[in-house]
Amino acid sequence: MIEATDVRPGNLVWYYDMYMNETEFEVEGILEGFIYCSTLPKSKLPLASVHPISLDAGYLHSLGFVRGEKEHGEDENVFSYKYNRNDSVYVRDEGYSFQFLAAAQGQLVPYGRPVVHVHQLQNLFYCLTGKDL
Fold first, then answer.
1. pTM
2. Number of neighbouring beta carbons within 10 Å of residue 16
3. CATH class of 4-52
């Protein structure tokens, strides 16, 4: 289950379809205990039926993050996303969660709470950049 205050339009979440398959969808709206999406069978689901997607390196890559390359002296556990000409967002794979990093004085410093779900990454990225993933 996911809380209404945790999601916003554009977030990726999942539900069990009638065949008990985990089916992902993008939130289009939230109102009075329901999440709306035009691709859902009745265009809405109760919040109790909607679940967060676990974040992994594959999702980071599919959202546009690039893994650091050891050949270039970068940490392989750090992913970056360049969202404008000068700035990037950095996330380190902690094995069980992902920690946001800030570039400060030539090094990457952890900040904020680690994230474990795709919608958490999407929400924090939006707060930092004003752009959707």
1. 0.88
2. 13
3. mainly beta
Beta carbons within 10 angstroms of residue 75's beta carbon:
15
- Boundaries of every domain in the chain: 4-52, 57-129
- Residue 5 backbone phi and psi in degrees, to 5: -75, -10
What does the pLDDT average to over 67-90? Answer: 85
Q: Specify the amino acid at residue 1.
A: M
Q: Which residue is listed with tokens 């709306």?
A: 36
The pairs formed by 47-51 with CB atoms below 8 angstroms and a separation of 24 or more are 47/1, 47/2, 47/3, 47/4, 48/1, 49/1, 49/15, 49/16, 50/1, 50/2, 50/7, 50/13, 50/14, 50/15, 51/1, 51/2, 51/13, 51/14, 51/15, 51/22
| Six token digits for residue 117 | 């779900």
Average pLDDT over residues 16-37: 94
